[in-house]
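protein under study:
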Amino acid sequence: MQRLRPFYRRQRLWLWLAVALAPVLPAPAAALTLGCLLTPARTADIGTPQAGVVERMLVDRGDTVRQGQPLALLQATGERASVRTAEARAKAQAAVSAAQATLALARQKTERAESLHTEQFISDIALNQARTERSVAAQALQQAEDQRAVYQAESAQALAQLHQRALRSPFDGVVIDRMAQPGERVELQPLLRLADVGRLRVEVVVPASQFGQVRSGARHLVKAEVPGVPAREATVTQVDQVIDAASNTFRVRLALDNADRAVPAGARCQIDLGLKTP
């Protein structure tokens, strides 16, 4: 036993030297998961170009709307009356019909006068008078037609003013806020706020040390921090080329298709951009 102890001591010494002198290998870099925020692709505050009083609100917070759908109506009693008057004028045919009949009669008289003048039954003065009457009748018809065109333009203008009293959705989306009630006078303030949630933006803040590692057009998985919502792929659409000096970061934006509206806008999320911790 006494002879074996030096042997064991030599073995431990060689083992310690082997460990001490072994090359130190770097630990594998870990994947860098970043926090992000899901926002609607676009939002819009719906207001009116004219001051007025709210007659009816046709939608409420949380309602899904389609492009062109009426959202609210303003009182438009005067505009409706103007439309009726303008349409009645535009449809009036009496003046044009009378001018057409007068011109037809003047043409007949002129043809008769020319025939009689050829046979020398009437003078040059009588023929010129008939021709003048025909010219005057033609001008009267033109004036009647021009006036009808003016009435038609006035009708279109009155109808356009009436349409401005109905606020319509500029795109498919969801009502996220309602800021007016029936009977309230509005002028410059918005009545509703809409959001397009069929497409989402993924906003990510990336450390400056990773600048140049994110490529536009690349696709990455995004996981909303909401139970039951599966991860979705998003496409990089914008990489900031300027680093924020205060935070030493830069921003990346991705587009996420959400046609089924399964991913809630406004939620926080996690994204793996394929980056590694330094």
Summary: Confidence is low (pLDDT under 50) at residues 13-25. DSSP finds four helices and twelve strands in the chain. Residues 78-163 form one domain. The radius of gyration is 41 Å.
